[in-house]
Automatic annotation (TrEMBL):
Highest rank taxon of the organism: Bacteria
Identification of the protein by name: Molybdenum cofactor biosynthesis protein D/E
Pfam families noted in UniProt: MoaE (PF02391), ThiS (PF02597)
GO biological process: Mo-molybdopterin cofactor biosynthetic process
PANTHER family: MOLYBDOPTERIN SYNTHASE RELATED (PTHR23404)
Length: 245
């Protein structure tokens, strides 16, 4: 007896695996007839030895939701393997509200956050710089995201900022694709009645999205080389769409 599953790799995992997707067969030796996500990861390790040292830190998404290792696995499932982040879904709007392949439009975010009660406005722009971690010669960064989960996480951070810091309006938008040095990769806009709340909310938004959002960075250099940046492992708790354990 065996079942077949599909596996999709993101960012550095795809680079190491040498492919974006693979079809794997789980045979009798992996806890059939009740396989779990952990069994699929064991099969991935067997099929892709170059990934063995990375799989302990990956998050696994099933049906656009990050799940635990013991989550049941069905035949034909699509498992998406998400490396640590360097930076039928229940979205209220298209992922394009939070993710953009085009240059970010600050004017649009300002219009979306207009509020006559807002006496304090804080704007944070995260721009690509020409150096990182002691290395110069950075020319651009390519951002890759899991669209539905990333959008859901960013939407939840907006709500969290408003609830925790007495912020009236919060909007976050992040670039995907190649972003050149000097261009904005992320914008955060917070409006509150007073400046302190707006500053605190904006800081929380940018710090939190770097920890929770499945967005990865491929850094490009002036010598023609590039590398994926390591980051924080994701967990089911980082995805507001995940079921409680």
């Amino acid at each position: 007896m065996s079942i077949t599953i599909q596996v999709r790799f993101y960012a550095g995992l795809a680079q190491r695996a040498g492919c974006r997707e693979a079809t794997l067969e789980l045979a009798d030796g992996v806890a059939l007839p009740d396989p779990r996500v952990a069994d699929a990861l064991a099969a991935v390790a067997g099929a892709f030895p170059t990934l063995r040292g990375m799989l302990d830190r990956v998050a696994v998404a099933l049906d656009d939701t990050i799940v635990h290792r013991e989550h049941p696995l069905r035949a034909g499932a699509l498992l998406e393997l998400l490396p640590p982040v360097s930076g039928g879904i229940d979205l209220l709007a298209s992922p394009s509200r939070w993710l953009s392949e085009s240059p970010l439009d600050l004017g649009e975010l300002l219009a979306q956050t207009e509020d006559p009660a807002g006496g304090g406005l804080v704007i944070f722009s995260g721009d690509v710089r020409d150096h990182n971690q002691g290395r110069g010669g950075v020319t651009a960064i390519t951002y890759e995201a899991h669209p539905s989960i990333a959008a859901r996480v960013l939407a939840s951070i907006e709500d969290e900022v408003c609830a925790r810091f007495d912020v009236l309006r919060c909007r976050i938008q992040h670039r995907t694709g190649r972003v050149e040095v000097g261009q904005a990769s992320v914008l955060v806009v917070c409006r509150a009645a007073h400046r302190a709340a707006a500053f605190e909310g904006a800081r929380h938004a940018i710090d939190t999205l770097k920890e929770r959002t499945p967005i990865w960075k491929l850094e490009h250099y002036d010598d023609g080389s590039s590398r994926y940046l390591d980051g924080t492992p994701l967990s089911p708790e980082s995805d507001p769409g995940s079921e409680p354990r």
